[in-house]
Design goal:
Number of domains: 3
CATH architecture of the largest domain: Alpha-Beta Barrel
GO molecular function, one term: hydrolase activity
Keywords: Hydrolase, Signal
Signal peptide: 1-19
CATH class of the largest domain: Alpha Beta
Radius of gyration: 27 Å
Number of helices: 15
CATH superfamily of the largest domain: Glycosidases
InterPro entries: Class_I_gatase-like, GH, GHL6
Protein name: Family 10 glycosylhydrolase
């Protein structure tokens, strides 16, 4: 095993230096057992926080990692840098050092938070050229804090000085970068300002582009803006690489954590409260599964954000929502992560404390069964990025919802990672593309290779609309009108050998987009589209005649099939939840990949989230072990979710499961109830019986 020699700076009272050899696998975060509590301190708490109470609370709540403010917007320690605004409320110059020292005494890691997105008004007045300026000449201001420009000296030079100062003063275990990158919005006021026109940005973009001027509008069809997107990516990665070199040169055991993947050790994501209905109860599963599968070399930490919104920071989301998020984190292969405003004493909304204490203690008690998982899924859903929004987000979530409710296991792969994970992608039996409108040429090539090797495809809505040759080659489809309001149209579930879930139904209503595609190049044209006809009054309804168009096409390839639904199938189910639209996808999967429903079969209600993983015990002795030791069936009870709020889940009884497995377990037991679980192993399946399910259960099936 290759060893990396590093000089570690460890602060032991007066401080000392010694050389230490570290294997890559020995990096502390690689164990993937994080139980993070982030204390996002407002400035005024700088006068009241105490190391003893903070550490006592972390111990009480079974946390093993603290994430706490250090610098950037303001220093929460005695800085000597004149461009680093000092927290005016800080009265104890030693508190951050005391917190770190006392955390380490209790074996609690400390990640410190930096936010270089803003500077205090005093810094702005001295250096206005460091700050953002909009196309209209406006600044982005939050009270007395000014948004900075990423290419100006504060971010490009001074930020590194601040980080160096903190590393030199404190034996930190990690750094977290909040709100990195380019800013175009004032998120705290919900206002869009536009592309930064700072002179430093103009000069750097001109050098990058060969003399081009900065765009002033975000238009993806504009070649200038496309060049600007390349510029943003390159400059952010350049900064991240420089940061990585700086930090690792000082101490390779300092973890770098932020929301991106390049030059980062821990990818952070967030489960946030939604501002629109319906709420998304699978937010943690979505975030973690996406990151774990898209960036398998990284550790993922998905934060449950306590606050309801920026405008409602002093109110927390419902306890049951937090419980679901935390259990989903564990079930999908992450640790626990919670972000709150301030410390835990005198908190304005403490309703979640019992849930946090319970779930964190549960993770600590059963830690060997979390964090080292292998997927059993034969299906992957392609995600439209890490932070999807708009129609693609609704289509993507709707497809996930259908699969979750049908208890069909699936992985998630970010669209931009398809080519980077080509062998993994080609290993799935079915890939689903929910409104994946653009893919890089190398990603399209990967899809074509996968199709030739036996991976079937299902694409929905406007997927691949900008690559007509790909639509024709893979799906036999040609766009005539990709945007078409389908309200009033009907679909006919015509081939009952495929559409088996429609007893008593001859017409299926439609809403949202209903693309009109020429599917003559497909081997099968299905779901004839009926005209809008006459919606009323009742005396004259009718006239829903055949249009000659179809809402589904299937093209047969030598070793696979490719089906296309050029319609908002996922969005319609996500927004309205009519079973008939889910059934279209489920019938298509049954036809294309009948074995998909065999992985998990159960009588559990649709509101029980079922997640199956193979596991290796997460212990020091198993650090380099690659062979699975069993399977674990995670059950998250969502019966308390109503669509617009969260209640206590209903207890469920006498649940039965049939899990496909080539191996028979020697022992089966529940982590939550601590009891043996009735089971039989025969004919390639494990049959389980669970007497009672409350909020969560993890059923362990050990092979040895």
């Amino acid at each position: 095993m290759k060893k990396i020699s590093v000089l570690l700076c460890i602060w032991l009272g007066a401080g000392s230096l010694f050389a230490q050899t570290v294997k890559k696998e020995d990096f502390w975060w690689k164990k993937n057992n994080l139980r993070v509590i982030q204390m996002n301190l407002p400035a005024y708490e700088g006068a009241t926080i105490h190391a003893d109470s903070i550490v006592a609370d972390l111990v009480q709540y079974s946390a093993n990692t603290l994430l706490i403010n250090a610098g950037g917007i303001m220093a929460f320690y005695p800085t000597k840098l004149d461009f680093h605004y000092q927290n005016p409320y800080s009265t104890d110059n030693h508190v951050l050092g005391d917190i770190i020292r006392k955390c380490h005494e209790k074996k609690i890691r400390v990640i410190v938070r930096f936010d270089f997105s803003r500077v205090h008004e005093s810094i702005f007045k001295a250096h206005p050229d460091w700050c953002y300026i909009s196309p209209k000449g406006e600044r982005i201001i939050n009270t007395d804090m000014y948004v900075v420009s990423i290419n100006a000296p504060y971010v490009q030079e001074k930020a590194f000085k601040i980080i160096e100062e903190v590393i030199s003063l404190f034996p930190i275990d990690g750094i977290f970068l909040n709100m990195p990158g380019y800013q175009v919005n004032n998120p705290y006021e919900g206002k869009y300002h536009g592309i930064d026109q700072n002179d430093y940005d103009k000069k750097r973009f001109a050098a990058f582009s060969g003399g081009m001027k900065l765009p002033t509008e975000e238009n993806k069809a504009d070649t200038l803006f496309q060049k600007y997107l390349e510029f943003k990516k390159q400059t952010v990665e350049d900064w991240s690489e420089r940061l990585h070199k700086l930090v690792k040169s000082r101490n390779s055991q300092i973890a770098i954590c932020t929301y991106s993947d390049k030059y980062v050790d821990i990818i952070r994501h967030e489960s946030q409260s939604m501002t629109t209905l319906p709420y998304w109860p699978y937010t943690a599963s979505d975030n973690v599964a996406n990151a774990v599968n898209s960036f398998p070399e990284h550790i993922i930490s998905n934060a449950s954000i306590q606050q309801i919104s920026f405008q409602s920071r002093y109110n927390a989301v419902e306890p049951q929502e937090v419980q679901i998020r935390l259990y989903e984190n564990m079930a999908n292969g992450s640790g626990l992560d919670l972000s709150m405003m301030g410390d835990m004493r005198g908190y304005e909304d403490e309703r979640n404390y019992d849930v946090i204490r319970k779930v964190y203690a549960f993770h600590q008690k059963h830690e060997p069964y979390f964090g080292k998982y292998k997927s059993v899924a034969k299906i992957a859903v392609i995600a439209p990025g890490a932070w999807p929004s708009g129609d693609p987000m609704q289509e993507y979530r709707g497809i996930q919802l259908m699969l979750k409710e049908a208890h069909i296991p699936f992985d998630i792969i970010e669209d931009g990672q398809i080519a980077n994970l080509a062998e993994k992608v080609k290993g799935y039996k079915l890939l689903i593309l929910p409104e994946i409108t653009y893919l890089k040429p190398e990603s399209i090539a990967t899809l074509k290779q996968a199709s030739r090797q036996g991976t079937s495809l299902i694409a929905t809505s406007r997927s691949l609309f900008d690559s007509p040759e790909t639509l024709q080659e893979l799906f036999g489809a040609k766009i005539e009108k990709k945007d078409n309001d389908g309200a009033g149209n009907y679909l006919v579930p015509d081939d009952r050998s495929i559409f088996k879930r429609f007893p008593g139904q001859k017409m299926l209503f439609w809403k949202f987009n209903l693309g009109l595609y020429d599917l003559k190049g497909a081997d099968q044209q299905l779901l004839p589209i009926l005209a809008k006809g006459r919606p009323g009054p009742p005396e004259i309804i009718g006239g829903h005649d055949l249009t000659g168009y179809y809402a589904m096409g299937i093209k047969n390839h030598e070793k696979s099939k490719a089906a296309i639904f050029p319609v908002n199938l996922g969005k319609l189910y996500y927004v309205h939840g009519y079973q008939e639209h889910k059934n279209l996808l489920l019938d298509a999967i049954d036809y294309i990949l009948p074995e998909a429903k065999e992985t998990v079969q159960t009588n559990a209600p649709e509101r029980v989230e079922v997640i199956v993983k193979e596991f290796i015990k997460n212990t020091d002795a198993n650090r380099e072990k690659k062979t699975s030791e069993g399977m674990i069936l995670h059950l998250v009870n969502l019966t308390g979710f109503s669509g617009n709020t969260y209640f206590e889940p209903l207890p469920l009884y006498n649940l039965q499961f049939r899990i496909k497995s080539d191996k028979a377990p020697k022992k089966v037991f529940g982590l939550a109830n601590g009891k043996a679980v009735k089971f039989q192993a025969k004919n390639g399946f494990i049959h389980l019986e669970l007497d009672k399910l409350e909020g969560f259960e993890g059923i362990v099936m050990e092979w040895n």
